[in-house]
Amino acid sequence: MWPVRVYYEDTDAGGVVFYANYLKFFERARTEMLRAMGYEQDELIANEGIIFVVRSVQVDYLSPARFNEQLQVSAKVSLAKKASLTFEQVITRSDDVLCKGSVRIACLDAQTMRPKAIPETLFRAILEHTRNEY
């Protein structure tokens, strides 16, 4: 779980988080998960020649988040394939579930933008991280 503070810029005129900004919170949690595992996305581009891109998203908005609230965002890999990962993500405020999402990420060659296998060491680290998360 990663903490996210709701800033004024995240909200609409009514002080409620704009729906698309939940996707930004999901993105931050996935990035922080990689960072916690010792991987930086800019280094993956430079050293491995790969990028991760969103392939598909399914989101359920259950309850609104509001300006200045402290949220928690999870990022758990539910399916790991050779060139893609599916994350199940949840945004909570205390014990209240505000938003749930399933996000499929594709691994692409940074030059050709074609699918490319996730490097073996990273793939093993993701699998190990996933085992420890559940």
TrEMBL record:
Origin superkingdom: Bacteria
Sorted UniProt keywords: Hydrolase
Pfam hit, one: 4HBT_2
GO MF annotations, alphabetized: fatty acyl-CoA hydrolase activity
InterPro entries: 4-hydroxybenzoyl-CoA_TE, HotDog_dom_sf, Tol-Pal_acyl-CoA_thioesterase, YbgC/YbaW
Protein family (similarity comment): Belongs to the 4-hydroxybenzoyl-CoA thioesterase family.
Protein name: Tol-pal system-associated acyl-CoA thioesterase
Taxonomic source organism: Methylobacter tundripaludum (strain ATCC BAA-1195 / DSM 17260 / SV96)
